[in-house]
Amino acid sequence: MSPSSEPPPPTSLPSARKAAVSTSTETIEIQSLPLPSPTGTYVLLQIEATGICATDLHLVRQSIPYLKSKVNICGHEGIGRIVGLGPDVDRTKWKIGDRVAHRWIYRVCRKCEMCEAGNEQLCDSRQLSGIHVEGCWAEYTVAESEYLMRIPEDVSALEAAPILCAGTTVYRALKTANLAPGQWVAIVGAGGGLGHLAIQYAKAEGLKVLGVDGGKDKGALCTRLGADAFIDFMETKDITAEVIKLTSGGAHGILVTSSSPRAYEQAVTYVRKMGVLVCIGITPTKTTFPIGPEYFVARGVRLTGTSTGTMHDTEEALEYVRQGKVKPIIEEKKLEDVQQCLETLEKGDAVGRFVVRF
Questions:
Q1: Which of 81, 148, 210, 278 is deepest in the core (most CB within 10 A)?
Q2: pTM of structure
């Protein structure tokens, strides 16, 4: 079935929905729950597909202090259709059957300094899916229509889902790095869910890409996606020397998508003078960079970070997919597979992105 020939929304809704519920830090159970009813400006969505993100793993495991979940349903890469409207929804903008996204940034205030500056992903009062509100690992979920993104009909749900978080995050990171065409960007964790997308966005922007990851399979993947060079950290004795050699002086920019503290410790040793290191991966333990102020004084290096992006970033990131410049590598799963997928992510064995099709 083509993306433009999706079935119309159901004329009658069920009384229950199936959801993947976190019943402990180790266990996901498939449960039948009452169908939520949209109130106020909320809409009810029937989910077509939803991604499984490493952030979901942190939420389920409760492994990151500032990511303590208050709900037991995760998921924030959801593509679905509106099947119910709250009484205060703007009917001139939204209608039954519209195809929309359930994103990580669920709701923002639109009044704080960050929102007014166009950085609503850092809103002081933001609500996050899977932390403050229920996520979209469910057949049906609700979303706030006043902060809702429309999804193009000519992009498949399976390919659109990973872009809502993973694709947006690396796309925003590349914008933050602000590199010029022809410059080198090193992508650490290049064969993973975020990294394989970062390679494609970087190449689309005319950058030279150095992939860093472990294993021959990851190397073959990175090369196939367009990486100009690859370093297998499992086989390379001196990563710093090898990066400097391959890039003729060090990477102009580094995107660390890995959650390994060691990856960050190494990255500061091979970033070029006046280069930029962009933090993306969240480490399970506190990470201390082996440098002091003199490092930045002497080298002029920028150290920054990014977490997902704005709605506009997501729209731009999806456009690359629509145009065929970026193609997520996905492994289609069922809702019952969520726990197994999280375990695979935890081991670092995932290639591409897991996406649940409903």
A1: 210
A2: 0.92
